[in-house]
Structures
1.
Amino acid sequence: MLIRHRPDIAPSEITPQHVWRRRRELLRSALAAGLLGAAGAAAAQGAGAAKLPGKPSPLSTMEPPTPYNLVTSYCNFYEFGTEKDDPPRHAPKRLRTRPWQVLVDGEVRRPQTFDIDDLLKLAPMEERVYRLRCVEAWSAVVPWVGYPLAELIRRVEPTGNAKYVEFTTLADPQQMPGLRSRVLDWPYVEGLRLDEAMHPLTLLAFGIYGEVLPAQNGAPLRLVVPWKYGFKSAKSLVRIRFTEKQPLNSWQKSAPHEYGFYSNVNPNVDHPRWSQASERRLGEDGLFSRRRPTLMFNGYGDQVAALYAGMDLKRFY
Ligand SMILES: Nc1nc2c(c(=O)[nH]1)N[C@H]1C(S)=C(S)[C@@H](COP(=O)(O)O)O[C@H]1N2
Ligand SMILES: [Mo]
């Protein structure tokens, strides 16, 4: 991955958590008082994003969310360019999220194409505040809105041959200027073992911060796997395929000695070019900011370590 050592973000671009909360409170009371129509409500939020509320989940971390402005301006979405500010500059203008369909096929009894508007109604939305640990050794805390991927998986009925799940991102050169670059072999492909995909923490996300996903964060739907490096959480999905063989994910294909299939957050296995023992939390970047120690499985070990019992996680990195 291309690495920048410091996010180039002016402090003025950062919305502190309390300001963000206050803004939402003001907006809510204005809505309750009938002061704003839908358009006014959207305008009051700045970006014009539609609301997407979710029931607060006990699986959420209590850590304070990273400011919205940072999560939506410091992005990895190589289909729109490799600089952190390329996706927010290009994706909102260029990515068309309607109509949008997701093909779910492979080793399943009920292969089908889902329309995004049906997927939005498939299961109750939850708000899950998860830590996100990028392989580049920065992290964030994001309030996702979505439901467990297992809800979708159950409905397509995997066959006995289904051992893995492959996720594919849209690859349309008309909408995605980053496809001109050969950094990766497009489309962006990721994969999970079926039991990882079925794990209750694994989320199909449609929103952040109570609003529909901004384009740069993977609209209209993406994967979120909080105990793995961020690159496993593929954005803007168009296909979910169940396979017998382990899928070859894009990052492993491009640099197999640097990126594996499992990609569990592991402070004891360094990237060949840098340490994974600690991380910087977005928004805490300052002269006196501390580096946080990186936790095994990104702190989700109690819930996921059993998936890897008996496995050598240095070998299966
Ligand atoms: N399709 C696609 N998905 C992707 C990426 C990408 O370049 N393309 N980048 C990944 C990486 S490296 C990270 S850290 C997360 C970042 O998600 P965020 O920008 O919403 O924080 O998205 C992941 N999903
Ligand atoms: Mo990442």
Note: The chain is about 20% helix and 20% strand.
2.
Amino acid sequence: MNNISYVSTRGSSDKLNFRDVVFEGLATDGGLYIPDKWPKLDIHKIDSFSSMSYQEIAYEIIKLYVDDSLSKDELKKIISESYCNFDHDDITPLIHSHDNQYFLELYHGPTYAFKDIAMQFISRLMGHYLENDNRNINILGATSGDTGAAAIEGFKNITSAKIFILHPHNKISEVQRKFMTTIESNSVHNIAIKGSFDDCQNIIKKIFSDTNYKISKNLTAINSINWARIMCQIVYYFYAMSRLPNNKNTLFSVPTGNFGDIFAGYVAKKMGLDIKMFNIATNENDILTRTLQTGIHALKNVKETSSPSIDIQISSNFERLLYDITKDSEYVNNLMHELKNKKVYNLDESILHKIRQSFVSNSVSETNVRTTISNLYNSYNLVVDPHTAVGYTSSIDLRETYNNIVTLSTAHPAKFKDTVVDIINNDNFVTKKIHDIINRDEKMTILENDVSSVQKFINTSV
Ligand SMILES: *Cc1c(COP(=O)(O)O)cnc(C)c1O
């Protein structure tokens, strides 16, 4: 289809084609892959999206990023299969709640968080390539909750891939865990590590740094920085804008951890979509809010909040924005080394200025998250999860400035039911599916917090 290639933000890895970028997480130079140019859509094309389905829009967007390793019909088939088991016909319905406030519900996939939108597609795409090559892989990843479930759900029927997901033992919500551990499939392996999420990630990093081991076991990483995830998420910004009655002067408010979801919106803008502004909504882990205020990007310790999927200090995809704004991989390299060595970097005033042309950022306290969940329920009979509450609350002071505010609703409230029930004193929003999952048998292996026990487990399972 196209002649697009993918370059590393740090400039010293080889360019990749689409098919290879799907299987590569991190570039060998430590950078993230990004297309060498942004495909543009003209205004007539974008206008025509208002009469297209989500799947049709997805095809129009994704086809611009793939190459001839995938035919048009193959792409259409993968899109159609990826979104056939969502529980809403619109896939990501745009809900008008009141005044100029909208919610883009991204949680209608099988594991109730927006991660399904990319994972359903990527698992089938990888399965397609593997089948063509008659190749098998073993997928390895760590999760703090939502990504692992979406990945397991996506890959459970892909016969050419086994999947191993590490999560921190007793440190994720019951519903998050059960979404992973109740799946019946011989190719799925859940490993609970006696340690923290950081410990899980360190084990994965160490295993992947052993190149011989990685090759001998056909290991592929599944993580939050894969380009294909961003690509899939661009689609719903086009979808949302096509459904707004008048989309001029619209702000998107995005609960942000790793900066992947909001970066996808920025890419949509680069492709020609007329989005006025993005609000980087943060909880008390406010590193990006501080960065936009001061230009100083300084790491602090992670705080545990009611919105755990955005309890993050290292916001990996921010690197992609820095690269896109500067097109200077040496500059990006220097910043990332400073962050690693000194836990802080300073942005040049000119770069901060460019970031502020597309982004604002506001952080939300735990108290205000709870107040919002309660207010939205009492005033509008709307039940939102804590991440969505961060997104909504974070843009409250901006409502006069924009014609429309679209908050990305990133998880179903039932996924965080203990927090939500505690606030609204009612569990009617908990679906039958969640009740069923809670009662199902679980399958997982609890392992010590060390590399060799995980390697031993993999050796006996592949
Ligand atoms: C992953 C996640 C986020 C954060 O998305 P990023 O792309 O990491 O910024 C927000 N909300 C929920 C529910 C998530 O699972």
Note: The two ends are 36 Å apart (CA to CA).
